[in-house]
Specification:
Layout (H helix, E strand, L loop, with lengths): L5 E6 L3 H13 L3 E7 L2 H10 L4 E4 L8 H11 L4 E6 L4 H9 L4 E4 L4 H20 L5 H7 L3 H12 L8 H11 L6 E2 H8 L3 H13 L3 E6 L7 E6 L3
Parallel strand pairs: 1-2, 1-3, 3-4, 4-5
Antiparallel strand pairs: 6-8, 7-8
Length: about 230
């Protein structure tokens, strides 16, 4: 049974920016944009009738400061998470965003890869919390690592990929395997992602080397041993 999609409201007064965020957010299978607002008042009116899982929030709104709206959302709607997308890069605003409990902070002009990486990180966090009743310190360290740190680490990794590993294919493979439970072999995962066995095997072995996946070798009576892969600590 598939899980319900992550619902998103975009609060942004620039129509072009709204269209860009909506387009790329809806491209991710697990997300769906349910409404947009161009003012803080419109956003609060929407929340009176529907509470999304996530809000993409600009700080410079026509009628109020986005930080004030963030505080009100966190006060009245504790189940809603917020990612700020703004041109504001002063330390005071960033500090207020952290104190206000924002999940992420993206500076305009936005880099689409960073938006997608942040959304995928948010999705991963939700899955990790949904799939576990209890968490150990290692899991907590991962959950409480800031999105900017995760994005920076991801950027560093993508810029130093070994030969034969393409960053776009790697992102696609990571996205496809997130919904997989249990162990699957490279052929099964390749069919899921729509790529060949040899290509999938190469990317799986790379993810094993990065400590993101683990492999189990099964020895049968005939033929080569089978390698089965699963996400680490799942």
């Amino acid at each position: 049974m598939s899980k319900a999609p992550i619902t998103v409201v975009i609060v942004e007064d620039d129509e072009n920016a709204v269209n860009i965020y909506k387009h790329f957010t809806n491209q991710l299978d697990q997300f769906t944009v349910i409404a947009t607002a161009s003012t803080g008042k419109q956003a609060l009116d929407i929340l009176d009738v529907a509470q999304p899982d996530l809000i993409l929030l600009d700080i410079f709104l026509p009628d109020m400061n986005g930080i004030d709206l963030l505080r009100e959302i966190r006060s009245e709607y504790r189940g809603i998470d917020v990612i700020l997308i703004t041109a504001a890069n002063d330390t005071e605003t960033v500090s207020e965003a952290i104190r206000g409990g924002a999940f992420g902070y993206l500076i305009k002009p936005i880099i689409i890869d960073k938006l997608l990486a942040t959304l995928n990180q948010y999705d991963l966090m939700r899955k990790q919390l949904d799939d576990n009743n209890l968490v150990n310190q290692e899991k907590l360290d991962t959950l409480f690592r800031t999105t900017s740190q995760s994005a920076a680490a991801n950027d560093d990794q993508l810029n130093s990929l070994p030969k034969g590993i393409d960053k776009h294919t790697l992102k696609m493979v990571r996205s496809k395997i997130q919904d997989v439970t249990g162990s699957l072999n490279a052929d099964e995962l390749g069919q899921l992602a729509g790529i060949s066995y040899s290509t999938m095997r190469r990317y799986l072995e790379y993810l094993v080397s990065c400590n993101e996946m683990e492999v189990e070798v099964l020895y049968g009576g005939v033929g080569r041993p089978e390698r089965k892969y699963k996400i680490k600590n799942r």
